[in-house]
Amino acid sequence: MKIVVQKYGGTSVGSVEKIRAVADKIIQKKKEGYSVVVIVSAMGKTTDELVSLAKAVTDNPEPREMDMLLTTGEQISISLLSMALISKGLPAISYTGPQLNIKTTDLHQKARIKDIDVSKIMEALEQNKIVVVAGFQGVTENNEYTTLGRGGSDTSAVALAAKLGGNCEIYTDVDGIYTMDPRKLRNARKINCISYEEMMEMASLGAGVMHYRAVELANKYKLPLYVGSTFSDSQGTMIQDGGAAEMEETVITGMASSLEDMQVTVLNLPSSVSGLYRLFGRMGEKGVNVDMISQMITEDGKMYVSFTAPIEELSIVEGILQQWQEEAPEISWEVNTEIAKISVVGLGMRTHSGVAAKVFKLMAENNIAIKIVTTSEIKITFAVDRVHEEKVIDLIGNAFGLVV
Amino acid sequence: MKIVVQKYGGTSVGSVEKIRAVADKIIQKKKEGYSVVVIVSAMGKTTDELVSLAKAVTDNPEPREMDMLLTTGEQISISLLSMALISKGLPAISYTGPQLNIKTTDLHQKARIKDIDVSKIMEALEQNKIVVVAGFQGVTENNEYTTLGRGGSDTSAVALAAKLGGNCEIYTDVDGIYTMDPRKLRNARKINCISYEEMMEMASLGAGVMHYRAVELANKYKLPLYVGSTFSDSQGTMIQDGGAAEMEETVITGMASSLEDMQVTVLNLPSSVSGLYRLFGRMGEKGVNVDMISQMITEDGKMYVSFTAPIEELSIVEGILQQWQEEAPEISWEVNTEIAKISVVGLGMRTHSGVAAKVFKLMAENNIAIKIVTTSEIKITFAVDRVHEEKVIDLIGNAFGLVV
């Protein structure tokens, strides 16, 4: 039995017409000889509307009851999609997460899948049925309904495909993963093939379609993921081990840029291990998402620390620093909210040295100052003044072949 | 533990504001020392909207998938009501029919409750929680979701109250059962107390708030039912064994009238047992809902049969008669769609003779011809020309004390 798990997102089933079109796409796959399992998200804005209803009832809805509410969204779309398939003459059957015993942890709204009992699905597939499954949801040992949080339906699809030993196809409203958001880099190139690690880095930068969690799970099971458009036949992107083996020339696979961070520089810290620990320890306790960190110790033994964090956490950061200044009046700080944070990601960096040097040279030749920089094995992230964002994206995009 | 099961219909939870008001009403009952179980219907027009969605997908939605779709309606309202209760500081927990193992037959869309496992409810009540249960739904042995059809939520409430050994209160948008629909009988009187049999007769006439099925179930378990208004404190109606014992003077409890029936009179039938059987046998096979039947045999051995049936079944009835005429050309028929069917119901008829006579006398004094009449132990039904409907209602309403 050739099994394929297809996942259709909320915009793909956003109307009755689209549901009928998705049914046709599924039938096409079925005719190619596949046993098809379909994961569906809630229709269009349904989840948002349900959240609004809850917020109208109370500012602070109970997470368990929130899950009870939100799981209805997918239940509506699976039943409608099954009706559409049946009306087109194909046997189909829908199941909720609880019905399939998609067992999760009991952390409501952010549950994680523990195990899936696929016997019911296999039984239906053997009866030649298309099985339509509610994504994003599961059930605890105690029969309480749970949801999986952001990216949950993708995670449901990957988990089911891994368990069933089938292919996994994620259909959405874009036709694949691009080297960069095409709204930011004109002529950004569609990536034919990308590795799990690169995709995870790009996903954690908020770039491109897939959520970190689903890719991480696919990586764990070495399950190839196809990402493509619901309503177009153009070739999408494969996410798989090793990425694009045939394209060794590609050093940089993708790029992302964010205008949502600030750079904070703290001057005249006492130079000691505990100084750094105390600063970032307090940030952590207050839930500040510190990203890049850079430090320098001057000849007279004073320490400078610079870091980036989301602009929306400015008041928390300033509160921590003001409190600290009461104990150590010599410290001062500067905040720059006018930065752009640029990240370039590429598995090729592992084998191609000098990528950072090439980036620095490009910036220097164009008189663009790098405010802070950090590197990891397959990623370089740096900040520049916000006015330069467009120029930097253009320079790197062209220098590293990220455009068509 | 004093347990009460309260049921709130769709209009009672039709908006976020109403849900919050219902929460206050529940809290009031809780403060009176009751352990409260609440059954809720889907919000306002939700069920209608879901049905429209399904009909947009296909003219003929699969019943199983229809149930999958419709059960979301109550799941939304139970979660919102629980959130409202919790936000007001009371511990509450919602459960779907499948979660509570409300076991039903497997006839989708018209399932019947077989048994309820109340252990989960009892556990929550012992933890001092308010338990909010989705009405109208259940689950088969095979874990398939089902709905109970019309009047389903009332039936859920009665079944739960019977099983839990608690009181049962049905809250709706009217403040009780009236002697007649007040739109038809001005000054119709609210009934303080009515027997199961009377209520079943009135329910099957389409009169008054409660569905036949829920009353039938309450009668089976001799469970007193209270019917009252969600948003008013005025005294409602008790439905209980024996009705209003203290009011023996009341012979007639209620009245209903319908303009949706026609009278068909078939002339010159062969006078034989098989004649009647053949006529009504065919009607039954074709699903015609024959109500009143009256027959007469003339001196020359010909039979006249008159009966009533819904006007919307006219073409089916004529089809049957035309087919029969081919075999028996001597028969002919008349159809009168301009009748009003009036029913009076009262437990008092059992002990008070002469009710029918009193009705006939009233009609005769006012020159109103009775077209057909049938009587049962506690009901008299008769048809008059439609033009007399208002007059007849007024005459009987006043003669039998059905008005304030």
Q: Would you mind describing this structure in some detail?
A:
The structure is a homodimer of 404-residue chains. With 404 residues, chain A is of the alpha/beta class. The longest helix of chain A has 25 residues, at 63-87. Chain A is 35% helix and 25% strand. Chain A has a domain at 3-173: Carbamate kinase (3-Layer(aba) Sandwich), CATH 3.40.1160.10.
Short description:
2 copies of one chain form a homodimer. The first copy, chain A, has 11 helices and 20 strands.
Q: CATH first level of the domain at 3-173 in chain A: which class? A: Alpha Beta
Low-confidence stretches of chain A: none
Overall CATH architecture of the domain at 3-173 in chain A: 3-Layer(aba) Sandwich
What is the CA-atom radius of gyration of chain A, in angstroms? 24 Å
The largest sheet of chain A has its strands arranged as: 3-6-2-1-9-11-12-10
Which term fits the overall shape of chain A? globular
* DSSP strand count of chain A: 20
Largest interface: A-B, 37 and 37 residues
Domain ACT (chains A, B): 264-340, 344-404
InterPro entries (chains A, B): AceGlu_kinase-like_sf, ACT-like_dom_sf, ACT_Aspartokinase, ACT_dom, AKii-LysC-BS, Asp/Glu/Uridylate_kinase, Asp_kin_monofn, Asp_kinase
Keywords (chains A, B): Amino-acid biosynthesis, ATP-binding, Diaminopimelate biosynthesis, Kinase, Lysine biosynthesis, Nucleotide-binding, Transferase
Organism (chains A, B): Alkaliphilus hydrothermalis
Key structural traits:
eight-stranded mixed β-sheet, alpha/beta, homodimer, 35% helix, 404 residues, Carbamate kinase, four-stranded antiparallel β-sheet
